[in-house]
């Protein structure tokens, strides 16, 4: 096709607005049978090649030296690979074949200024639907050799611990200290090292540990008093009752579901260069919480997240839950600015392979994308055996197409649709429009489309003074993309429909080619879809026409592999005891650490499967053990022999997670909203680009900024008056607030005012698990206390002790607000200062104050120049800021 220089730019613009939702199909295009029959050869040479040579090669071939739009059409591989906006040819799929949509003038005009004859278009239609048989096969790329042969794999399976089937190996005889099977394994390890277990913790310490480990919240004063009495009568029965009651609490799923969201890299935006929101990610969050509360068998939990769309369902509600579960594969980071759709599809499959294998199998198969794994017996061909499964999978993560036109922002080159749920929300989630608003939205789209037509015809369009026609086109196209995203999720009455992220099998499935050095333009032979050889006994049996994802899910969620149960019980152990039996929770390979108690790990894995994969049963076993009750007291001799406490001679001191710190402050202050919210503020904002720390309509941003600026100037003037003549407490608050208004924090400062959709939600009292998790804009109250990076698989969070944390507890408005609420609660519930001090310690630390703490507290109240209310608020803030509030002993 011959293009004018003007058309080459127009092509680039219009390709950006094309819906490339089936990027996976583009990558899988090469799965078509390469054998060409004589009849197909004749058809291609007489009907297809002449048109390509005459109309296309001038701008899209090696011979002409042109590849406008990154596209060449003179070889089979180049046509299948496509250009900047995706594959030109997708065998069997007209809608995804950009060459066909171009010659039919569906979205833009090729050839320019005229159209192919109806007979020629019909020939291309027939050819593509027939599988696009093409004799122009390039010289094959040589398959790289592998140093990992069958003998290496067999030796690894026979000798390396994680590849062997778990077996029961009973521990040696133990003393009366051990009360459970877990204790016997722990004591055996300690005895072999000539170590002794620490004494039992006191009841108050143990109860606080139980409450935070099970539900992420502190015990109430009533719970403390009851437990201390019951523990004296029958310690075992008291512990079991607390464990059972907390396991039945909905707060259990909120706390333990958050652990899973860490490894599932849960977030509500794409991250990367163009950070677009995921308005329906919250459904996966709620699915995870509900699964933990319902004690969904872990094997089912696994299978639903990998292949829920392919599992049988009893009714529409279960079918909807299964679809939502597959958000696990769709929720990772994405580079929407990637020019090549083929590269985007390959990267997407790579991210899914990495998440699936590390989360469920503790194995990083993605390390073999470009070459054989450097340490584990995983060949590059093993990687592409799995790649075929995921490249045969279509991922839905973006926004559905609009009946009023599909537009895409200039910087957002890759996009996809969503899955419409079979069950609609009882309460609609998202922005609803009145009849007038809905009509106005449609009219605005028509007006913007007409402006594009006017610009193409050389007419002027009102806009930014001095802007060129090209700049105006880009701006209008971006505005149309946002308007299209808003209207596409609405029904005919302007109410939001219920969608979810997720995956489904492609219409065309098949094996993936091995990419030499991982380069998209170096495809070698195709690799049959399968699991890495070192992890399996038999090959996957994948039915014709299936991606193999269902077979993969059923294999992972079964006792046929050696890793799934081990990996999960190790994760549970990590959260219960503070360190995994295998500390490297995502790496059970050669570069990971070996298990401290391999026999115990096997025992737990076998018990896990026997319990019908019950997570609650496994948690209960661990928390009712004697080992869980130990003190965290330091012992010099034991530390010298086992400095990392891998043999568990004492309880590990644990820093509370960021969510537990915030939630504990809210609960202690009497402000925690324990009812779960519906949806997320990201759902209310819709599919949009994240700007600064708030989700704003760009057309309203300047107006909101000016209003916020005026408001803050007025506030600053009042604060200056307080600074000159207020009380010491007022001066402290004023100084801190002025620092914020002056830009002490980049985000949330006057340079980027937050609106009613602020991602921080500092004034919200909902549990932290329901706060928005937008990549690169995690709420400050979570970020400062080592919240898991939502772009990464985080089985083990980092734990730091930084000046920023101390400053947060001293100056942050949330801390000041909750300290005041804490003081007001004490005033309401305790009449005397003595009772207030005792209640404060009981609420904050789950224990009564010592005599020294009482003395120091009363000395503070007698010596301060603050009034009674201010003094009590400052006292409460000091309790929040102390290390004991943030740590579990």
Task: Summarize the structure in words.
By secondary structure, this protein is mainly alpha-helical. Helix 22 (564-577) crosses helix 23 (598-610). The longest helix has 28 residues, at 698-725. It is built from 36 helices and ten strands. Helices cover 48% and strands 3% of the residues. It has a two-stranded antiparallel sheet with strand order 1-2.
What's this, in brief?
With 889 residues, this protein is mainly alpha-helical. It is built from 36 helices and ten strands. The strands form five sheets. Strands 1-2 form a two-stranded antiparallel sheet. Strands 3-6 form a two-stranded antiparallel ribbon.
Strand content: under 5%
Quaternary organization: single chain
Radius of gyration: 31 Å
| Terminal-residue CA separation | 73 Å
Give the beta-strand count. 10
Our count of helices gives 36
- The unreliable regions are 1-34, 697-706, 742-756
Mean pLDDT, to the nearest integer, reads: 86
- Helix % is 40-55%
Major beta sheet, specifics?
2 strands, antiparallel
The neighbouring-strand order within the major sheet is 1-2
What structural class do you assign from the helix and strand content? Answer: mainly alpha
Q: Per the principal axes of the C-alpha atoms, what is the gross shape?
A: globular
